Amino acid sequence: MKLTEERIVDAGMATFAETGYHGLSMRQVAERLGVHAGSLYYHVRSKDVLLTLMADRVCRHAYAAAGAALAALPPEAAWRERIEVQAAELRRSILQHPGGALLLADSPGMLSTGSLSLMERLLETLLDAGVPAEHCGIAADTLLSHVTGFLLQEQAGPQAPAVTAETYADLRARFPLVMEQMPRLSQEEKFRRSVGLLCAAFETLAKDDGSRA
């Protein structure tokens, strides 16, 4: 089968799922494809470029998934719903790739159409909400950074270690706000609420316009 950039990215994603970010090498990708490592460089000139292409694929999948979800919303859907959909689909797309959050966080700082598309649509949503243009870039970057950070923790492993009743009672006595005030929620619910809090913050920046949802 002809060697193409798309096939190399496919092999890169499969290798990455097994080895992680730092274990990935062009040699391993070449072995998976049954070719010499040197032949990869004609299509993908370095590991950094491969990682960028892989991150771009995750972003493009998230962009397409969010596009379908946005299209399914009723015309009267509020801007907050549109932001929540975009965040939720990005999270879902990252979760489909083991270590995907680390891939996005650590991939080289090169421009990609996938990541730019995500940012562009998010900026459009924020502008439509009435957030002043001078704040939109920070708002969008904050949301995307939050999604990536949340997923870095989520994909790192178990979030709550098992404790005995005695240990829990001791912790509850010493740290009542942490142990009592923080509800035990699913990752799905924690993510939904955290995005809701960010949207509430964005709303304080929005122009006072009663016509906006």
UniProtKB/TrEMBL annotation:
Keywords: DNA-binding, Transcription, Transcription regulation
DNA-binding region: 25-44
Domain of life: Bacteria
UniProt domain HTH tetR-type: residue ranges: 2-62
Coiled coil: none
Pfam family, one: TetR_C_1
GO molecular function: DNA-binding transcription factor activity; transcription cis-regulatory region binding
Any single GO BP term: negative regulation of DNA-templated transcription
PANTHER family: HTH-TYPE TRANSCRIPTIONAL REGULATOR RUTR, TRANSCRIPTIONAL REGULATORY PROTEIN
Protein name: Tetracycline repressor protein class H
Origin species: Streptomyces chattanoogensis
